[in-house]
Amino acid sequence: MLLGIDVATTGAKALLIDETGVVIASAQADYPLSMPQPLWSEQSPADWWTRVVACVRQALTRGNVAPAAVRAVGLTGQMHGLVLLDAAGKVLRPAILWNDQRTAAECAWITEKVGRQRLLALTGNPALPGFTAPKLLWVRRHEPAIYARIAHVLLPKDYVRYRLTGGMATDLAGGSGTLWLDVPGRRWSAEVLSALEVPADWLPPVYEGSQVTGTVSPAAAGGIGLLPGTPVVAGAGDQAAQAVGVGAVRPGVLALTLGTSGVVFAPTDEPVIEPQGRLHTFCHAVPGRWHLMGVMLSAGGSLRWYRDTVAPGVAFDDLLAPVVDVPAGSENLLFLPYLTGERTPHPDPLARGAFVGLTMRHAQAHLTRAVLEGVAFGLRDSVELLRTAGADTLMQVRISGGGARSPQWQQIIADVLQTELVTVSTIEGAAYGAALLAGIGAGFWPDADAACAAVVQPTTRVSPQAGVAECYHALYNHYRRLYPALKPTFVSLADAA
Known about the structure:
There is one protein chain. This protein has 2 domains: 2-234, Nucleotidyltransferase, domain 5 (2-Layer Sandwich), CATH 3.30.420.40; 247-497, ATPase, nucleotide binding domain (Nucleotidyltransferase, domain 5, 2-Layer Sandwich). The chain is 38% helix and 20% strand. The protein is an alpha+beta fold. β2 and β3 (23-30) form a beta hairpin. It is built from 17 helices and 24 strands.
């Protein structure tokens, strides 16, 4: 039996699978999100641990699984978050999360200090507000008393690892999103750490995704319901684990995740760096592989905001059902999904959302479809960049995430991308990938290729509809012109705030 644990933004999840990849049981628990100021986003690490403990115990009970049957544990979770501990392992402040946008000034300072091109060459990425490094510099600038007490810097899932094993560790995929990792070299970058004046001993050792990083400690075992000594593997950041979970572990298979954020993920055999830094270049959870990734910050998050604002309490299925009666293009209504700033292709924390083209003729179903189409256009932005960056030999696009449960949204994305979408036999997302990595670490499979070939199979396919390509191509060109046209307004609005 293998256990995958996911420390996501919206809640924790524990998933048990057997040696054939069959899901035995799972459990989930939400925890709160704090937004103490506009565009800030924080959580309490203590909430992660208490919910993980509850989920693991509940999954074991639901599956009637004895602790001794769990052979290994894999961890995954939200990337980029900043968790600060003192020398005694005490949390110093709430964690600053991936979707927090407070660090524009720190990003500018990092770029000037290291140099944009040198930063791209070393880390594969520009300095972006979502990454971990600028968050630490924000604490140094604004909370010096807390900064003076720092002894350890961890990512969210690695705080759970610390509570589980008593040790500090992280994975290369997760470390890639800190802006401290030498991504081509798969190690912490001494040059970047030195330039930013961050002590190297604050960071944990880095491991490949399936390597064992420690074992369940006696102190944690009783509370969480596992045996002391159970191996805990490195796991991966949520997107790399999600890719393993859907079988996107080799070049040619692209993973498209439609969750709170929207992600397109293309594995590569070598580090490929997009010259302008509009795509992320990260280490994959698979040894010797990397990936290119485009991220839009509000994908499913846009739909949730729209539902909660325009149709509170309405089930998503009921909200989306009428869009099939609205023609492709929503009668020339566009939605810009930049509700929390944006990352790909416009790394701009000041970007804002908008409906453009509203007329008296538009009804709620038009607005709903426009939201779905706007997110699809945002995903197309990333796919187009992947093709120009060298990931143009796509054999298959595998879609997953909560939004992928909607047949209407799947069809719109297939039509906008003009490519077939494939769902697979595993629908448990990143937690499933973490469990597979645990299985590799425990010797169930020799590597990720073998694990995915054994347990991940295509199930359904959605093909583009005839007759809509021209409409969406024209509308997409209008969509692409919106951000440049509105950017001065975004800046003016931010200045007026």
